[in-house]
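Please check this chain.
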Amino acid sequence: MNYFKYIFSIFNDDNSWHPAQQPNENTPVVFLDKIHNRVAFLMMQDAEGQSTDKLADVVSTNTKNRGGKIVSHKKVNINGNVFVFIDTVSADRQASPTAATMWVTVKNNVGYGFVCGGLQTNDLAEACGMIATTLQIK
């Protein structure tokens, strides 16, 4: 599999984001924000023969099968790459009100997924969106 260079920048004004694990082939970037109970990670996998729409449909189906609710599912352009943005919330919001936002794309037979989530708060979507604006796949 041919992985292309990527740049992942974290808006870390309060120094809350920290690397959570050593990078590996499929999950090269994982950051935790223990102060705000958030996680962000970038995944890459072989996606030969897949389209961005097909990959997004698989992600959405898996989310629903695990009890999540899709709030939004739309195409967005980030730094010249078309991603499908998927916004989700946990089905059992009273027990653990969590949310996750995902941006998925396929480029040169590689599937990329950026996931950011945590406790559902007003600033979660904003923080995740700010990080997503930095995604670059070359």
User: Anything to note?
Assistant: DSSP finds two helices and nine strands in the chain. The chain has one domain: 29-137. The domain at 29-137 is CATH 3.40.1000.10 (Protein Transport Mog1p; Chain A). Residues 97 and 120 are 5 Å apart (CA to CA).
